[in-house]
Amino acid sequence: MGKLTLATAQTIISAAFEKAAALSLKPISVAVLDDGGHLIAFARQDGSSILRPQIATGKAYGALAVGTGTRWLQANAETRPHFVQALNGVSGGAIVPVPGGVLVRNAGGEVLGAVGITGDTSDHDEACAVAGIAAVGLVADCG
């Protein structure tokens, strides 16, 4: 696969919602971005709070910004807060440095985009992103 399509993004979202239901999670919101950081698709479950679109997109954008999943960003926020603060500054505050932002790679390791999920714990959000990416036969990079 050379790039993420709308149909692929919608499948990722559906599979993420299925994983959230299987885990009995709070309502989640899912953003799928292409490799340039542009939104391909977004969906939120009923009951999601008002900033969830921005948080989900910020997680996905953060993964793209550093070239790995946002678990890496969280670790650096703890050990090098000045770096993550500067990164967020140069991005105009667009990065959310907690797990739940997962890069989407093809089998050759090429970055195709990213998935950002928010709504439950960061670990659960990340698990839903991984499930969505796996459902379309691509590789998840959590960082």
UniProtKB/TrEMBL annotation:
Coiled-coil regions listed in the entry: none
InterPro entries: GlcG_carb_metab_protein (IPR052517), PduO/GlcC-like (IPR005624), PduO/GlcC-like_sf (IPR038084)
Gene3D superfamilies recorded: Haem-degrading domain
Entries under PANTHER family matching the protein: SLR1406 PROTEIN
Name of the protein: Heme-binding protein
Species in which this protein is naturally found: Pannonibacter tanglangensis
Lineage of producing organism: Bacteria, Pseudomonadati, Pseudomonadota, Alphaproteobacteria, Hyphomicrobiales
